[in-house]
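Worked example 4.2. Below are the chains of a multi-component assembly; read each line carefully before continuing.
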Amino acid sequence: MNIFDEQELKRATASAPDSAASEETELQAVLEILRHIIDPELGINVVDLGLVYKLENSPGGIRVEMTMTTPGCPMHESIIGAAERALRAYFATRSIDVQLVWEPPWTTARMTQAGRAQLAARY
Amino acid sequence: MELTATKMSPPFHLVAKYFIASVCFFMLLCALFAWSWQDIHGFYFQPHLLALTHLATLGWMTMTIFGALFQLVPVVLEVPLWSPRLAEWQFWIYLVGVLGLTSGFWTFDLGAYLDASAALILIAGYLFIWNMMQTMRFVKKWDLTSYFLSAGMFYFFFTITLGTTLAFNLGHSFLIRSHLDYLKVHAHLGLIGWVLMIIMGVALRLIPMFSLSHGTSHRYAWLAFILVNVGLLGMVIERVIFADTKLTPFFAILAAAGVLAYLVQIFLILRHRMRKALDVAMRHSIVSFSLIFAVVLIAVALQRLPLSIQMTERTTLLYGFLALFGGISSLIIGQMYKIVPFLVWLNRYAPLAGTQAVPTMKELVNVSIARTELWLLGASLALIAIGILTAIQPMIAVGGSLLFGASVLFGYNILQTFRR
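Applying the procedure described above to all two chains together yields the following structure tokens:
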């Protein structure tokens, strides 16, 4: 799914993820959307960087906890904002809450295999 | 409510103005350096060298520092800039002052023209210090970077106050003691106290951030902070208050040891970095730190070696040249390749992220031009340094042309980033 493709997004939304799909499928969709949020300094998406700490799907809405690669990272507002905008566009009827956490501090051990490969290839 | 990075940031056009002006000053500086290659020799107190030095320190370095601090202090120290409007006024006053002072030195037009230009720089400098003092009053978490920045601004106050006094003295000659005695104090307050102190503080935050190096103890940076301050204050107090220089070698070695401690700190940070390959910005930083190390060695040599008058003149010129064009400029150029894309991305692309594909910050800079610029810069520094030491002027001429070429590539790259 390309979340930046309006037609594709409309088709996906029309399948009403919040009513028909299972909770697990929804969380997979959340992860898939977050894979399109790129750390602008590293050029790697936030999921493969291991920045997403927690995903919660409840009747009240979707809650994400994520961190940044550097304590006090000046990009945190932009990245959190991008994640919120992308999730709101897909889950239009649900409440979205993306929280920034600094504990536990991020390390490269949290990166996925794909993330590590990208870091090694780029830098 | 927690204030966030964008809310803290000053207006984009304000910071952009400072950076664009500083880049233009750098190109002008390198053009004039290449143009006046025949003047790059002998004693440093001569019109064109004074103009070049002030174009470098005021037009290029200080203008960059103003822009960088207006952008970074609010974001990094989590306090909004006290008055963006004052920063706007400061820019225009400062710009006219720098153009006036450097052209006044170039033509050696002493008197009212130089006095007025120096006074404008003083006013702009005081406005900056006042704005920053008011801003930093609200910093909640003081760390070593905050101390470096505060110390830098403390020395900046004395640098511009003494500088203006010296500019007035050139036309009216009222100082009882030698002008050159004070000039040395002014130069070291400016270069070590202001420029180096600010650069050390900012790099201590940016280098771990960009290289993904966390958790390194700042023990050596603290040591550097103490040693450089004690060394510099000692030198200044001895020379100004006691009119003596007996302890100068001791204080110079303290300051040099402080700079070395800082370099050890940077080495430790880089050793623990998670991004193993060095990008073009970090390569500039490595060149810079190597040259700062060379400058420290030259400073010690000037204090300890029994050099002839001729060699002392050449080595002093080399010391100033490598500090300004090598150590400090290459670090600023490297950090500019990071700060300007960050600024442009935050202003233009951050609101679109999450709704459409946006470029990364790396894609906002032309990396191959930046690499070519670094090679040209390195070659020009080597040629000019050898030219100064051996007094082979054509070598300085060729090096100067390469330096100008490097400045044009850098300027073009940064101005293109602003247009993206």
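Take a moment to check your reading of the output against the notes. The beta strands of chain A are 52-58, 61-66, 96-100. The interface with chain B takes residues 4, 37-38, 40-43, 69-79, 81-86, 89, 105, 107-108, 119-120, 122-123 of chain A (CB under 8 Å).
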